[in-house]
Amino acid sequence: MSQESKRTYTIRLPETVAARVEKQAVISGVAPTTLIQSLVVDTCARLAETEIGGPASNLIGKLEALSKACERLEQNAMKGYMRLLFEVVKTRSAFLHGLDQSLSEPVVDEIIEASEKTARDYIDRLGDAGGAKQ
Question: Where do runs of H (alpha helix) occur along the chain?
């Protein structure tokens, strides 16, 4: 404000307002003119922010942040799903390896076939339930 060239405006204030300005200036430790200048500058800055897109650009920023947060949540969910899938496959492999060592091959093959049938039936039920919801 001090480096810019300034224009002078003469304004008239009601006595009650002038008394409040002078009282606030004393409390703030500044001259009444300085107080009025700062109030006008602050008000103009807020108006300019609103006109340039203050609330709208703020909303856009919030939407972008929300979108990024959703992306991170989806990535974290996918990582969790992949870890869970890894653990299931690892456990299945260890279980089948143990069965293979202790049971005959035809018995292990029968267990695998029964497991696959159960899994297919489960997937089919999920598909039917999804179709019923639509």
Answer: 15-28, 32-52, 54-102, 105-133
